[in-house]
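I had to read the description of the data format several times before I understood it. The format is easy to grasp once an entry is in front of the reader. For illustration, here is how one protein appears when written out as sequence plus structure tokens:
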Amino acid sequence: MKIIEKVEAIKQQELTATENLEQMYSIIEEKNNDINAFVELDLQRAQKVAENIDNRIKNNEDTGKLAGLVIGIKCNINVEDLIVSAASPTLKEYIGSYNATVINRIIEEDGVIVGLTNMDEFAAGSSTETSMYGPTNNPSAPGHIPGGSSGGSAAAIAAGMCDIALGSDTGGSIRNPASHCGVMGFKPTYGMVSRQGLLDLSMSLDQIGPFANDTTGIALMLDVITGYDPYDTTTIKKETSPFIDDTKTTSLENTTVGIVKEFMDVTDDKINNVVNKSIDQLSDLGADIKELTFEDINLGLPTYYLINYVEFFSATRKYDGRKYGERIEEVCGPEVARRIEIGSYISQKEFSGKYYKKALQARSLIRNDFNDLLSNVDVIAGPTVPKLPHKIGEEIDTMDMYAYDILTVLANITGIPASSMKSGLVDDIPVGLQLQAKPEEDHKILSTMSALENN
């Protein structure tokens, strides 16, 4: 049953919101000890919400777009009265005093928030191994990392613990775990979704987005969370057509898909073989395939991380032990400490021109060149992650960990929309197909995903 069909079933009371919640919660009880996708549950409040939805339906009252769907939320997004820790000892006792804008919108549309999901500490990682709650196991490749930093949300979807989950994406933190767990993940255009209430890793790069097992789940959540927010000045004032309409796409006639040689060059051959089959399918659906080159690919990671370090250092200055629990430098893990230390160093006046300002110049170059790349195509298709996920606990060099992000950081640097969906399996491990498009052309990505899903 697709997510949109489940909503209709709930509205027709063929399945009640309460029954849906009970089914999901039973899966959480059965699997979460092993998977560690959810780090906090709010069953009592969720039950009240579900009962209210069922009562309103029985009374022929209107219900929202997400009526009765069970939703998981990454634990760096503020949910009132839950511990919003960002998986860090720094905030281990921080109870959300308000709802993020996206949470209010989910509540208004009758989504049933069941709890908060695991993540890398302060979203600093690509494996969900840096969490104070311990690592998350990959339900689709047991014993392997689920990716990160939104690994708990991706794993929750892959394990059937919720209908839709929210994550945040700074350099691939939605798409990376979506690829490793074999689910769909969507990073909207920067500014399409409010970040008010998100604990920032890097304010100029971060974007909240959804995970689901099918495009109707992605579309429903995008229809709920996108739109202007007066509390977030980066949001775009623009009305968009319903994303749910994109999920009916079956043909890619009059669509041009770009394939970038350099994206394939840095990716393992086995992954390329699977992704190429998806590209062949795009062609079979009527798309015109166009080969492209992007010589700036090696600029992506250093540009991204230099900006990330400085903005993360700035964002963490409020965690000084006076208002928000512990002083971050005294309790954080090694990856967070590394980013703070480097960010502090390159923020100093004598170094900012040498590193940070040059990174901003490189960002402008990458943005211009990537916009040129997109100028004659509707979407770019390619691998999401260049290599398979390592095993949980396996020693891996810092630069090798950062290398997971080489294909995903470009969308954050440029602010464009991007997604990942399952392309196939390599050694029984899911690999993802990444789709990218021009800024504010999120609909083209979802339509392309839908065409692949519907055939």
User: Anything to note?
Assistant: The chain is about 40% helix and 15% strand. Residues 17-35 form the longest helix (19 residues). The two ends are 16 Å apart (CA to CA).
